[in-house]
Amino acid sequence: TNEVIYTGDTTISNGVLALDAPVNLTNSAVVTIASPNAVLDASAMGYITDLSYTLPDGATNEPVTNSIFEVGTNTLAGIGTLNGILQADPTSTFNVGLPTGVFNVTGSAILAGAINMNIIDTNANLNSELAAASITISNTATLVITNIGPELTNGVTFTLFNHPVSGFASVTLPEGTYNYQWQNNLAANGTITLITNGLAAAPPVNPNPTNIVTSVSAGNLILSWPADHTGWYLQVQSNPLTIGISNDWVTVSGSSSTNQVVVPLNAASGAVFYRLVYTNTP
């Protein structure tokens, strides 16, 4: 019998929650693995199976361990690791990410229900991702991908699965303000790429050295450099002239996102030195 009688939601926030056959969590409406280091261990789970012979103790059935964690009419969500096999039934919901991040399955993932994933376009492109030993998609499975951040940039790629996947009943991609046009590579490599109707991609940064142009206006020192060098870092140090330039460079905050910095002139500052660096290191 199912020995877990608790009917509330279950959250594994750290450490390991290990379940023993034939216990399951189908009576918990939402099961969430809530951190990258949290583990739901299903390696000792299984089902009661009738045997064709009588055991020495007279029993005719016994627990059979198959390491399957079954999601029936409930919801599995989050990040972290499921140690075992994931079986998501047609009535299940699988929310991958918290809201983004990697959900790891050490065995195979067999998906037949609703699968929800999120993407966001930032300096480090973040998205939900399912990483499993193998992934099988049933023809009853649906995939909905939602952009939870700002408008996306043309050319951005999101890796949603660590294996090629196909066979969904439906796939819903983010639409955006201007009707995003996607290249769906799920069946090839588990990714999607925004082709057009997103924001224009930033032009590439010119990696070749350039000069800093200086001018003075209204008591301010204006430092500027070519627009195609936006992405370089302006660094500064202040030392007496008798010492000159040392290794004590400090990056000017926000300088990598512009090509002009305005500095109030202050005679008490003494000698001030500036330089541009491409990778924030000399």
Draw up the topology in text.
Elements: E1 10-12, E2 16-20, E3 30-33, E4 39-44, E5 46-50, E6 61-65, E7 68-71, E8 75-78, E9 80-83, E10 85-88, E11 93-96, E12 101-111, E13 114-120, E14 126-137, E15 142-147, E16 157-159, E17 170-172, E18 181-185, H1 186-189, E19 191-196, E20 213-217, E21 220-224, E22 233-238, E23 250-251, E24 260-264, E25 272-277
Parallel strand pairs: 1-3, 2-4, 3-8, 4-9, 7-10, 8-11, 9-12, 10-12, 11-13, 12-14, 13-15, 15-17
Antiparallel strand pairs: 5-6, 13-14, 16-19, 18-19, 20-21, 21-24, 22-23, 22-25
| Helix count, DSSP H or I runs of 4 or more residues | 1
Helix content: under 10%
Tell me the major beta sheet. 14 strands, mixed
DSSP strand (E) fraction?
Answer: over 45%
Number of strands: 25
Structural class: mainly beta
Order of helices and strands: EEEEEEEEEEEEEEEEEEHEEEEEEE
Overall geometric form? elongated
From the alpha carbons, calculate the radius of gyration and give it in angstroms. 28 Å
Mean pLDDT: 89
Give unreliable regions as ranges. Answer: none
Q: Span between N and C termini?
A: 67 Å
